[in-house]
Amino acid sequence: MKVIFWSFQVAFFYILTLIFALLPARLVCPTGSFIGKLGAFVFPKRRQVAINNIRLALPTLMKNPEWSSLPHTPEEIARMMFCHLGISFVETCRMYHGRGKDVLERVEIRGWEYFEAAKARGKGVIVLTGHCGNWELASLALARHFNTSMSVVARRQDNPYLNSMVEKIRQRYGNMIIYKDKAIRNMLAVIRNNGTIGLLVDQAVFPEDGALIDFLGRKAWASKAPILLSRRSGTAIVPAFIHREADRHIIEIHPELVFSNDTSEQGVAADVQTYSSAIENFIVHHPVDWYWVHRRWKRAGELACG
What we know:
Blueprint: H1 2-21, H2 28-42, H3 44-63, H4 74-96, H5 101-105, E1 107-110, H6 112-119, E2 125-129, H7 135-146, E3 150-154, H8 160-171, E4 176-179, H9 183-192, E5 196-200, E6 210-215, E7 218-223, H10 225-233, E8 236-245, E9 248-253, H11 265-285
Parallel strand pairs: 1-9, 2-5, 2-8, 3-4, 3-5
Antiparallel strand pairs: 6-7, 8-9
């Protein structure tokens, strides 16, 4: 019975994504915006999570001297975020069905010299990012621009047929997938070959796997994995984030992060705070491009900090 359900699920996924992939390019944005608005309506609990997260973060965001975002209200930011998610979904459908050349060509990369400087060290590069903008597009665009394969850490799909399909689609553009069940060993293998690893590290982790940090005015658990991996291998950690500007995408690559040599728990936590602050800085500048739907502050009390 499970095999039948998995087969149906894969067929439905393939047909649905193919329909959106076949849309004319001029209909991508309006169709995606409609899907995003529909998603906000169909999943009101997720929309409310986003609005609540934004409302609690706004006092901290607005204290930042670089905050000048429009729109200003939680409801408006959430609405635009859902529209962006819908557009990203349609764009990703096009890419995964081999029709994404126009999307990839509208990606501008700023700060490329920081990536090349880190790569020149010969110890691999960890591209640290989050669920920002069209994050699926970011890994494909970076690999295309630098003519290198990127290994992206991902969770294995429960449906093995769907997992196989998604894996083949992603590898069409030369990228590789590292599954979380054997992540550390496989990441070290990539690094030894001076490869590039993409890590999305803006979601909550279990306390035993993370450090308690301040994030947008509240306590949150953040992964220690990038810090521990970098210390073990000497690999540079380079933040990079993608956001949408009108009909194009901008990937901003930042200088390599500098961490302490303090191996204590406090030292590791301070370094985790360093990379988390880089993500927070992105959100200050591009609040509608971050995935507010996630319960980022769970298991940490979700209380405002001072």
